[in-house]
Amino acid sequence: MASKRTAKKFLQFSFLPLAIFTIVLIVPFVNGVYYTFTDWDGFEATKLVGFDNYIKSFQDPTFWATLRFTALFVVISMIAVNAVAFGLALIVTSKLRSRNILRTFFFVPNLIGGVVLGVIWQFIFNSALVSIANKYDWELFKESWLNDTNKAFWALIIVTVWQSSGYMMIVYITGLISIEQDILEASQIDGASPMRTLLAIKIPLMAQAFTIALFLTLRGGFMAYDVNLALTGGGPFRETELISMHIFQDAFANGNFGTGQSKAVVMFIVVALAALVQVTVSKRYEVQR
Amino acid sequence: MKTRPRLGKKITFIVGTILAFAYVFPFFLVFVNSLKLKYDILANPLSIPTSITWDNFQQALEKMNFYRSLTNSIIITVLSVSLLIFFSSMLAYYLARTKKKHTKYIFLILVTSMIVPFQALMIPFMARFAPFVSWNNRGALIFFYIGFGTALSTFLYHGFISNIPTEIDEAASIDGASDLTAFWKIIFPMMRPITATVAIINALWIWNDFLLPRLVLTDESQTLPLSTYLFYGQYSIEYGQAMAGLVLAVIPIVIFYLVLQKQFISGISQGAVK
Q: How distant, in Å, are the alpha carbons of A87, A174, A181 from that of A177?
């Protein structure tokens, strides 16, 4: 009787969701890894080819350039987004009367999809700033930032910070308000300066928020596609292509399904390793309460 | 002693206000220019419009098929989120309440799967599901969203259910309720806070998603981000119209947010910290 009921419960509660999850995620994943070891052309695979696709991928100089560009983007955007987001969280948790309005303002870019944000900033960099710079003779913006690889990189960073800092701010706010009030009062009575309280008490006690926000920005950085597409479109000269766009181009624009998919598997491995290292290191700083 | 915190407060206020302006300024710029004639925009994008024109909006509404894309976005988001809530709450209940080896492994697989980027799947994904997609692309997209959303949603529900005492299930079972009745009549209503979180996190993601709809949807079934992007690409020379299109794309989600602001903030903080 009991086993019949558990079997029934399994079918009723978990069969469909697990089936859909398997079809949508597990099957393409296993398939995708398998295809990289074959001569798959998008339609059929006739024979195994070993590591040929991976070797070809790593012989592609643009792939290396993309990897470097993506790594730089991930590191800089992680630092910038989290520094700004933590600052915003401090402002919004202070005793300002306008804190709720400020929080809304900081959060709004986050509601909007990366494509729309990217396009808005494309207008700003390509048209608005250029026209203002020419009017007031402002050297820095006379030429659109998106026409220069280095400046386009910083444009990507600026838009990413603007987009994600509001979300990470919420994560940090949650961390900041979880700190018990009596600990903060005790430090005040002991005469600790606000800076000292921040560094010696608040940050260590909310280290978990840093682990989460760093993880989310790391993952977001590797997966960034929308802003990249809408803001720079990979240009100039495909020099600002992040890894997602590179894979998309390789497979769907150039029809290289074999190398495209091996690059995707490489991306997965890099993301998984980077996330593992980041979480392990961050966890070490968390205080058990 | 007293002057220092006050000075600090003043600095915080000034920095905060400047930053807030910087954060909304792009939207302001887009809005102002959506009301201007092309000539005025090119002359000075910062100026306040000398004469307001709504023509840009009319053009954009028509050319980007705004109402059609809005309807598509709403249908796809509402159906995907509802089904995700339905499926993942049940799955989470099963996994949390059945303390067996296999449930542990299933849960572990679900959690691990969250690290897999969509890009790692998309190529075989499109090859494998092409027939399904061409049969019914909207239905396929909703099906895919359920698959991709299951892990996080189940994880969120799982954490919540673990805090509901099992005595409640036992009492329902003694009273003769079946497992399904007990879940839907008693447990599910108790999970309202986490249901709100799951709904908001998934709605935000699905509403704004671009890559998957771009691969899956046809012209007639475009969602708002897709039609905005294509419209902007085609008409970016018509600055005023392009700006009006962007304003239209931004408005629905901002209204939604302003109405449900509290749920949004608590939803995101809960969703992230778990």
A: 15, 5, 9
Closest C-alpha to B173, from A14, A6, A18: A6
User: CA of B180, closest CA in chain A: separation in Å?
Assistant: 8
**Alpha helix (H) ranges present in A14-148?**
16-21, 27-35, 52-59, 61-92, 99-111, 114-123, 129-136
The encoded tokens of residue B193 equal: 């806070």
A74-86 pLDDT, tens digit per residue, is: 999 999 999 999 9
* Architecture of domain B58-272 in this structure: Orthogonal Bundle (1.10)
Pick from A248, A271, A242, A265: which is nearest to A53 by CA? A265
pTM: 0.89
pLDDT > 70: percent of chain A: 98
Considering only CB atoms, A17 lies closest to which of B91, B179, B209, namely B91
Domain ranges of chain B: 58-272
* Closest residue in chain A to residue B9, using alpha carbons only: A96
Contacts of A106 in chain B (CB under 8 A): 19-20, 23
**Which residue of chain B comes nearest to A216, CA vs CA?**
B272
Mean per-residue pLDDT for B69-85? Answer: 95
Q: Which H helix or E strand runs over A181? A: helix A181-189
User: What pLDDT digit, counting tens, does each position of B21-39 carry?
Assistant: 999 999 998 888 888 887 7
